[in-house]
Automatic annotation (TrEMBL):
Superkingdom assignment: Eukaryota
Stretches assigned to the WW domain: 11-44, 57-80
Principal localisation: cytoplasm
Gene3D superfamilies: 2.20.70.10
The protein's name in its UniProt record: Pleckstrin homology domain-containing family A member 5 isoform X16
Recorded GO MF terms: phosphatidylinositol-3,5-bisphosphate binding; phosphatidylinositol-3-phosphate binding; phosphatidylinositol-4-phosphate binding; phosphatidylinositol-5-phosphate binding
Subcellular location: Cytoplasm
SUPFAM superfamilies from the UniProt entry: WW domain (SSF51045)
Amino acid sequence: MAADLNLEWICSLPRTWTYGITRGGRVFFINEEAKSTTWLHPVTGEAVVTGHRRQSTDLPTGWEEAYTFEGARYYINAQC
């Protein structure tokens, strides 16, 4: 299950954790102590829904690029 990003998510991060946002708008979490990252919130184990989609001028009209929670790229025909 995924959850929307909100202030509670940020405030509930453990002391050694912070977060980042990819160029595509996807939130990830950083464990500064272990020098590792994850798509899943370290307390809840849930991914954050950010609507990480973007339109590209390289795609045909009506198509958008998006990413799964695992980071795989896929394309959406928004006209359907």
